[in-house]
Amino acid sequence: MFKKKEALSSIPFDKRRKETQGTGRRQVLSTVNRQDANSDVGSTEECGKVEFTKDEVLALLNERAKAGKFDTKGKIEQMTDIIKKLKVCVRWYQQVDETHVQDKENLSSSLQSAEKRYSDKELDAKTKEEELRATITEMKENIESLQEKLSKEKLSKLDAIENHRREKDCRVVAEKLQVSLREELDKVKEEKMAAKQKVTSLEDMYKRLQEYNTSLQQYNTKLQTDLEVAREAHTRAEKEKSSILENLTTLRGHSKSLQDQLASSRVSQDEAVKQKDSLLMEVNNLQSELQQVRDDRDRHVVQSQKLAGEILMYKESVGKSSHELDILIAKSGSLEETCSLQKERIKMLEQELAFAKEKLKMVDLSMSHTMTEFEEQKQCMHELQDRLADTERQLFEGELLRKKLHNTILELKGNIRVFCRVRPLLPDDGGRQEASVIAYPTSTESLGRGIDVVQSGNKHPFTFDKVFDHGASQEEVFFEISQLVQSALDGYKVCIFAYGQTGSGKTYTMMGRPETPEQKGLIPRSLEQIFKTSQSLSTQGWKYKMQVSMLEIYNESIRDLLSTSRTIAIESVRADSSTSGRQYTITHDVNGNTHVSDLTIVDVCSIGQISSLLQQAAQSRSVGKTHMNEQSSRSHFVFTLRISGVNESTEQQVQGVLNLIDLAGSERLSRSGATGDRLKETQAINKSLSALSDVIFALAKKEDHVPFRNSKLTYLLQPCLGGDSKTLMFVNISPDPSSTGESLCSLRFAARVNACEIGIPRRQTSAKLLDSRLSYG
């Protein structure tokens, strides 16, 4: 099959692709699908009888077709047998999962009953123990409190005498401090008066400067009117020149004089503008000085108010302390009387304490018996918890193996994987108080893979490879695609793109908020993983070279986001004026790689370098405000990382490509309220997304002609949608009830994408030096 491709290298790429796709591959896949359909009934009966061990499953995953290179029929038969075995293995693991779930439920019920019995006995023992301890502690506390009160009263009496002596000393110091504070207050008042006088003088000067500024503005307008008169005279002179040819020489002299007058008026105008700017600078300086004086005045006023408040507080504290001293003397007499009464009560409490100690001995005997029963129940509970943890571990391992089998089947079929993500409700959403329109099935088959959308009372169910609810974090989302990103280092072409209506969270999923580590998007996290993995593989002899490019498709034109700011500004002006700027041409080579001419390609060697490039691209990307989104992406953003790896020990070379794409959001003109440039952008976005939909329809129907050339977006994604790439699509959904219609359209489109077969991914390895140009897949 591969030699056939080499023999047809002279035929044009597009024509050869149509012939091969329309004949060979479609017949092979249809044959496999018919055989799979006929074997479904028998496989359900076999999975109940056959059992698999972990080694058998791993051997089955690593099994490959062993037929000759030209024995296509033998390869097809061996591949169908492998797929049948994989299906039987998957069904067997589903049954094992169900039995594990039932065992887990039985163990949890028995554990709950044991915990209930243990908690009841523990509560009874605790209540008895707490009652006895409460009586003992109450008696001890009464004794201690009485002793503490007696000692405190003695100490308080001594403290009161000492405080009275200190108050006399403090009163003398306070009077001296009051005299000094009055002197400082008088000084502050004098400074305040001086500051007020300075403020009034500055305000008068500011008024005079404003009057002078207005006079300059009037003079400027007069100069402008004189300039207009001179221009009108010049235009009249030019008209007379065309009508009266015989007076040409005289009119030229008149025109020259008018031009001299115009130049002199312009020079005088420039001088007036310079004089105006200098005066404005002086006014600003005076305003800053005036503000500084006002701040000083406010600070002095606040200090004087604080000093006055401190004086009042000190007077109040002196009066209170003398009154408290009289009260303490009266209290000391009453406490001496109560002390004698408390001594008699202490004797009675000592007798009660002896009785309570005898009662406590009897309770200790009953507690020892209860503790033995408690230890037995605790040991039983630990055994049940160990069994439950072992069951959960087996379930986790089975789920990982199921995912691996599922991914292997998808790779063999060549389907596009689809993940669905629902963003949380935002404060600006109008349907917060209404019933939720999105639900997640809880059945074993659809758990984590199904989503239901309710519209007008009708439920629309969908099933994808993975569904993330509104509570999923960026880390959880990236964990599911981390192995796919790893494939780029292994030499595969990988494409991940986000699709959905505007405001559904596509840019947050792809880019996130890089300044917050927890909210980083898929692009920064993918790059961090690739650099970490490439560094760890250096110990095995691998060396990697990485190149980055970023572009956007805006109004069906390509823009380079890594060029200089001046070039971007010139290109944006040209695009707005509908003139031709720099032309970027998309081409595909015979190996299925895509190249964009004149595109800026940057060699990168660290994650920090890529982060700065991402920040530069984010600032250059086209965004705008609509009724549906404050910062709506008005273009399709394409990030490409090409990876070239060389193993010095084995001389093996790999070439991988990672495409991460943030598509612009589809929107309805009736809801977005787009006008002017926004209207033109919306029409271009909807047109390119419609072309993408046409391509998906053609691939799903396995038509001979797929309209990739209808849009620059689809032509750029041609290797990802119709080649040998590992492709994953994120469909982003808004939970707002007013967006239910757009959410249904996005989910239906995603379901069609999930059903498309684009071919089996092929690893790119070679023993020659790789091409240094950057490709898109």
From TrEMBL:
Residues 339-394 form a coiled coil. SUPFAM superfamilies: P-loop containing nucleoside triphosphate hydrolases (SSF52540), Tropomyosin (SSF57997). Belongs to the TRAFAC class myosin-kinesin ATPase superfamily. Kinesin family. KIN-14 subfamily. It comes from the Eukaryota. This is Kinesin-like protein. It is found in: Cytoplasm, Cytoskeleton. Residues 1-44, 103-126 are annotated as: Disordered. It comes from Arabidopsis thaliana (Mouse-ear cress). Residues 1-20, 114-126 have a biased composition (Basic and acidic residues). It holds the Pfam family Kinesin. Its main location: cytoplasm. PROSITE patterns: KINESIN_MOTOR_1, KINESIN_MOTOR_2.
